Amino acid sequence: MSPRQSGRAWTRSGHSPFRACRADDAQRTFDAFAVERDSLDVEVDGVVFKFDDVATQQRLGMTSHHPRGAVAYKFAADAGMTTLRAVEWSVSRTGTITPVAIVEPVQLSGATVTRATLHNLSNLKRLGLKLGDAVELVRRGGVIPHLETTHGGGTELVAPPEQCPGCGAPTRIVETTRKLADGVVTTQILMCERPAECMASRHREILHYCATLELEGFGEKVIDVLLERGLVSDVADLYTLSADQLAGLPRFGPVLIDNLLREVDKARTVDLAAFLRALGIDSLGKHAAEILARRWTLDEIRALAPTDIAELHSLGAITGQSIVDGLHQRTALINKLLRQVRVVRKEADTAAGKGPLAGHVVVFTGALQHMTRRDAQQRVVQLGGLAGDSVTKETTWLVVAQDELDAPKASSKLAKARKLQAAGEPIKILSETEFMAAIAGAA
């Protein structure tokens, strides 16, 4: 960090305030911003420290998620005490039933808060909430209200519903596990027993589909009416709507009807990655969908085994199983959609099958000297390869930066690549210089 102008702060129109400081003065600088934040003309939730030298930033490069030349420190979240009045249970598109705390209005970070997330059944049980409890709310990041702790005082213990609030079907408890560095965490989730028949679940599923494909006009109220009148039961039914069906609905005038039908027609040709995301399958978000779409067609994706996905860029066994199960559960819906929709792969999606790096999965480790990691990954994709984040059996090249080669101890990626080589896997370890030579002059 540069010593120039140390201790001085500015505020520029349209920009966050900044201050130059030495590394050993970082804590005092952070504390000063924490004191000044309420008087600034912009909303801030923390401080980002970065090297005041572009060459140093470029030399340090990127991880798969963030620049190595910068680090963010968040301010302590704004907290407040209030009283728990009720707990509502919200049904998601997958049938998950999530508890939401209803509290007496409290001011947090300049906003009046009356609702706070409780996340899941495990968290509710951990808190042991009772109606009337004095509770502490925190607006994490200055945005999302969370109920952090209870100070007691209530009388009626909050219990999970035995029937789904959306359809009245029985509820069931499902346990999920997640691996962490220090062990395995088990979480209990409350589920609707029959999500496919649940009106609330279908509402969320259709809303998610429309939002993903950017179908304007299909908000909560419109979808509510379509479900209540029996005009749609799933997302595929959107494509069979007609002007005559919509004309008799309350507040559906000619302009709205025309706009809705135009939006549906716009979505009769859908990009494969977007189509996968729109299905609302757990673990099949933007990142996973784009990886799958770059490598396979829809028919091939539907035929995958969990192990096929688990080894692809470390999506993992749990993710692979979740995606395969989700696609299987939606077989009838997908078939119904394909009678109305043409699913296509963008040129960028199919690039992995063309170019000099076709068939290669390239992973980088260390701070590259000739380009940032993001630029290197983009170059791999441009040349027809796939850019991975972690070393797996599918990795064909591991590109090792000079700082990693000079390090006394091998990085985790390099150690894993050597282990795979010893096991007979055809993975090649390249220096950055060898990689640059390999792609030199490539179109």
Can you tell me about this structure?
- The chain has 18 helices and 19 strands.
- With 443 residues, the chain is α+β, with helices and mostly antiparallel strands.
- The chain has 5 domains: 9-74, Dna Ligase, domain 1, CATH 3.30.1490; 77-197, Beta Barrel (OB fold (Dihydrolipoamide Acetyltransferase, E2P)), CATH 2.40.50; 198-267, DNA polymerase, domain 1; 270-351, 5' to 3' exonuclease, C-terminal subdomain (DNA polymerase, domain 1), CATH 1.10.150; 354-439, BRCT domain (Rossmann fold), CATH 3.40.50.10190.
- The strands form 6 sheets. Strands 5, 6, 7, 9, 10, 12 and 13 form a 7-stranded antiparallel sheet that branches.
- Strand 1 and strand 2 form a beta hairpin.
- The protein is globular.
- 26% of the residues are buried.
Features:
443 residues, alpha+beta, Dna Ligase, domain 1, OB fold (Dihydrolipoamide Acetyltransferase, E2P), DNA polymerase, domain 1, seven-stranded antiparallel sheet, four-stranded parallel sheet, 18 helices, globular
